[in-house]
Design a protein that fits this description.
The chain is of the alpha+beta class. Helix content is about 30%, strand content about 20%. It contains three helices and five strands. A five-stranded antiparallel sheet has the order 1-2-3-5-4. Its EC number is 2.1.1.-.
Length: about 140
């Protein structure tokens, strides 16, 4: 899908991590939460139902596998998976590991305080940790 581009807001707010079979995996630039975004590489899609059945299954497979790996490696208390699209219409799925006592607990992370951007060293370490966790996952 060479014409695929994530929405400009997603590009502005996150960093690319890797390409999964269906989705581009991105890390939100907010160090308060381990927060990933999966963006299906499909043009003109804003809703899950616009994907065919196999793609819907693949999206869920990627979101749950990545979420499980992230929660386990970071010892999270709760895994949140959501597709909102109120600000960015392009279909994307948030995968967020929550911890009791995090900056927004128990409320949703959206609209809670100001994002705390990653410094470059922490960003690189987080990306490396994510890639190591994802490497062995069964995603197809």
């Amino acid at each position: 899908m060479s014409d695929f581009e994530p929405d400009a807001r997603l590009v502005e707010d996150s960093y690319p991590v890797t390409e999964l079979p269906l989705c581009q995996l991105r890390l939100m630039n907010d160090a308060r939460y381990p927060w990933l975004v999966l963006v299906p590489r499909r043009l003109g899609i804003s809703e899950v139902y616009q994907l065919d059945d196999a793609e819907q299954q693949q999206l869920w497979r990627e979101a749950t596998a990545v979420g499980r790996a992230l929660k386990e490696c970071l010892h999270g208390d709760k895994l949140n998976i959501a597709s909102l699209g109120n600000v960015v219409a392009q279909l994307h799925v948030h995968v967020i590991v929550r911890r009791h006592g995090d900056a927004a607990w128990p409320a949703p992370v959206w609209g809670q305080g100001e994002p705390e951007p990653y410094d470059l060293d922490t960003l690189a370490a987080m990306r490396d940790q994510l890639l190591a966790q994802i490497e062995g996952l069964e995603l197809t």
